[in-house]
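=== RUN LOG ===
request id: a7f3
mode: sequence -> structure
chains: 1
length: 279
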Amino acid sequence: MEERTAGTSSSGGSRTGRNLPAAIAVGVVLGALVIGTVYTIKELFLLVVAGAVGVGVLELVKAFATRDIKVPAVPVLAGMVAMHAGAYWGGPVWLLATFALSALVLLIWRMFSDGTDGYVRDASASVLTLLYPAMLAAFVALLLKESDGDHRVVIFIAVTVASDIGGYIAGVLFGKHQLTVISPKKTWEGLAGSIVACTAVGAWLVTWLLGGDIWQGALIGALAAVLATVGDLIESMIKRDLGIKDLGTILPGHGGLMDRLDSLVTTLVPVWALMTIFF
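=== RESULT ===
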């Protein structure tokens, strides 16, 4: 998320370029969809996740195509579904196995589709898409499959969202020192705001929902803040390398699905690991 520069425009959008009313409305709808599914039918929530990640995959496929990089959508999406199912019903070993098999399928698929020219380029982009976001997102199934998986998922999503909100507010109000040239509107003040917000939300929800210690929740939150920022930067690097401004426009005020998934997928694996160790 680009967080710096205060003020609002007459059209209701912020001078950061976001339509804040639309962004808030979309955020509320997405939040309700998450809560409404994760606390009722876990498999339905998993289906929602697979659908969102699938759209993110298609956004990346389309983005790569602008530079004549061929990523086959069908085998990547099939691999994504297999990884989510394998993780939820089989566990980490099945997730790893389906990822490895899907990557092999992609290498073979490209070998017989477009000849030798550009093979390394296309195959590398295909495996990258299989990993980011498809394989990383499948770790949500590992969170979900636990007996208290609904709480774990809510904590993971809440701390990641807190990173965006805390970073945005702190960046708008106090942002002066650029964090990196990769994303010029990101500031050190925004990162500090992300860490404070995530640490507070993590400490609160982990003690409330999982009965853990405050320090465990604070550690989960602080780690999420840093990795959510890294996720934003990774997506920025992809867009800069491809020479495009946005990966999609499906969510008013937010952009594409990948603009919401970028921080979530990079946060997910370490948060899953800490929750597995702690609980």
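=== NOTES ===
The longest helix spans residues 214-242.
The radius of gyration is 19 Å.
=== END ===
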